[in-house]
Design a protein that fits this description.
Belongs to the PTH family. Keywords: Cytoplasm, Hydrolase, RNA-binding, tRNA-binding. The chain has six helices and seven strands; from the N terminus they run βαβββαββαβααα. The chain is an alpha/beta fold. It has a seven-stranded mixed beta sheet with strand order 2-3-4-1-5-7-6, sandwiched between helices.
Length: about 190
């Protein structure tokens, strides 16, 4: 079993492009650029998507264009059409419970209040897919008087952006391992990065 579908979560449109909630899009954009894959708009899947090879493995890259809380529409449709199992899917998303600069990999578990994950779980009928969590911090732990919904829809502060970029760079390094099915090796490498 290896990763065949890498999904970056975010919200479409220029007003959301630089917001924390789009960390998943940032990673997939970087990956697409690194491997020379151009993402095309596909109406059937309500997404930007492309197919590439990572370590000789065919892998789909997907950015749902449905807005975050309806991400499952794209993920579910593509997974069904191409017969991709939940265990072969990696969802890349922003994570409030991790500090900026931290990225963690895990399989399964609850959505932790993340509406994109809730919708994907509903569409796939299981929580048993992989998640790559890009830490954006929480307004409380960052001493900000900001509601969570407002916080995720704003740009990272100047000092946070290089940390997020670093977490994405660390995450990109483990994707070839995930595409070979080397999950424990990838997890260890990411979780000990720094």
């Amino acid at each position: 079993m290896s990763i065949r579908l890498i999904v970056g979560l975010g919200n479409p449109g220029p007003e959301y492009e630089q917001t924390r909630h789009n960390a998943g899009f940032w990673l997939v954009d970087n990956l697409a650029q690194d491997v020379g894959c151009s993402l095309q708009r596909k109406a059937d899947f309500k997404a930007l998507m492309g197919k590439t090879k990572i370590n000789a493995q065919e892998v789909w890259l997907l950015e749902p264009q449905t807005f975050m809380n309806r991400s499952g529409q794209s993920v579910g449709a593509l997974a069904r059409f191409y017969k991709i199992a939940a265990e072969e899917i990696l969802i890349v998303h922003d994570e409030l419970d991790l500090s900026p600069g931290v990225a963690k990999l895990k399989k399964g578990g609850s959505s932790g209040g993340h509406n994109g994950l809730k919708d994907i779980t509903a569409a796939l009928g299981t929580q048993d897919y992989w998640r790559l969590r890009i830490g954006i911090g929480h307004p409380r732990t960052l001493n900000l008087q900001q509601a969570v919904a407002d916080f995720v829809l704003h740009r990272p502060r100047k000092e946070e952006q290089p940390l997020l970029d670093e977490a994405i760079a660390d995450s990109l390094k483990i994707l070839p391992l995930l595409c070979e099915g080397k999950f424990s090796e990838a997890t260890m490498q990411l979780h000990t990065a720094k």
